[in-house]
Design a protein that fits this description.
- This protein is mostly helical.
- Among the domains are: 205-305, no CATH class; 308-369, no CATH class.
- The protein has 11 helices and no strands.
- Helix 5 packs antiparallel against helix 10 (328-346).
């Protein structure tokens, strides 16, 4: 019997052992992420805030004429204070609007119920297969009206929890910015081999560059979407226009479903508010969708390009996985986390197959070391 045939079962056994090892490692890692979410979520948010502050600092120092005269530490302080004030202001605006919305909720529930009755009466009189359709709508009506108070209450709880954890997040962010230089030097000293140090530094730079670009461009695009949405809702007379604009800003960080929710929620409110109706809801839906599509599908890809190299299906799965592990915070952070994982997997021989599968076009960077 040829030697290659004898070695084939051993090779298969080794491959199976590796597969089970990585599967067990992934399950253990997921379990640790879940049980440690109360510590890891603020820490991860602080990490990405540090990226945003660092990007703002670089922007300040790149200002024409005056930027080069601003000391780096002063630019850091200005960027940090700016981000802190903006987040505190936004959290307070959202909290006040949610409290007001909870107060108006009974009236909106009643009007939403009346709207459902009008739609179902029209269907029963004009659609031949209305019985099954109306039965489905009645079920959706009862579920929606039953879950609406709990949903608004959950949003309020999330906002209060986030506001309460802002101090912790800011402390983490401040210490990350202070420790940044020392941490990079520690990473460099983990190996005595200069080539290995260069390799690790290159991976860290690639991750930082892509995530910084994603966060910076996405933040700018979301601000444009929120500003345009605010002007549209203000012109149409949609209530809580500022609140919905802020929600649109936050939700657009959630890939795929975030923009859908950011359009549907104010449109639904436009239908049930006292001076609203179907016409206002349809016009709100049309204009907000147009703004979302212009910025999200036309302008943003031309700025970002395809540098993230992530498959849309992978983004959707990442959204589901990180959302189940960390809730709404996981949905916000799923794309930057997956980008970092793609870069790391592409530089390790044993995990390159995973990097190829989760990439958009199957083309990944060669191993540099």
């Amino acid at each position: 019997m040829p030697q290659s045939d004898l070695n084939q079962p051993n090779q298969l056994s080794q491959d199976l052992q590796k597969s089970f090892f990585f599967l067990g490692l992934a399950l253990m890692f997921g379990f640790l992420l879940y049980i440690g979410r109360h510590i890891l979520i603020p820490l991860t948010i602080a990490l990405f805030l540090a990226f945003l502050i660092n990007s703002l600092k670089d922007t300040i120092r790149a200002l024409p004429r005056i930027g080069r005269y601003i000391p780096q530490f002063l630019a850091f302080i200005f960027a940090f204070v700016t981000i802190v004030l903006v987040l505190i202001t936004l959290a307070e605006i959202v909290r006040r609007n949610v409290d007001a919305l909870i107060g108006d909720l009974p009236e909106y529930q009643e009007r939403l119920n009346g709207t459902f009755l009008i739609v179902m009466d029209w269907l029963e009189g004009n659609v031949s297969f209305a019985d099954d359709l109306v039965a489905g709508l009645r079920k959706m009506q009862s579920e929606l009206l039953g879950q609406l108070p709990a949903l608004v209450g959950d949003i309020s709880t999330i906002i209060r929890t986030f506001a309460a954890s802002l101090v912790t997040v800011f402390l983490y962010t401040a210490f990350m910015l202070v420790e940044r230089g020392r941490f990079l030097r520690k990473i460099a000293r983990l190996s005595t081999n200069a080539s290995e140090r260069d390799h690790v530094n290159t991976i860290l730079r690639d991750i930082a560059t892509l995530i910084r670009k994603y966060i910076s461009v996405k933040t700018g695009m979301n601000m444009l979407v929120a500003g345009t949405s605010y002007l549209i809702m203000l012109a149409l007379g949609v209530k809580y226009a500022g609140f919905w604009a802020l929600m649109s800003f936050a939700l657009n960080f959630v890939p795929i479903i975030g923009s859908i929710i950011g359009v549907l929620m104010p449109s639904l409110l436009a239908m049930v508010q006292p001076d609203g109706g179907f016409a206002l809801a349809a016009l709100t839906l049309l204009l907000l969708t147009g703004a979302e599509q212009f910025y999200g599908s036309f302008l943003e890809p031309r700025i970002v390009g395809r540098t993230l190299n992530l498959s849309p299906l992978v983004i959707l799965l990442s959204l589901a996985i990180w959302g189940s592990l960390w809730g709404f915070a996981g949905m916000l952070l799923c794309v930057p986390i997956t980008v970092a994982a793609l870069i790391i997997f592409s530089q390790i021989e044993e995990t390159r197959a995973i990097a190829i599968l989760i990439s958009d076009n199957g083309e990944i960077d060669p191993i540099r070391h």
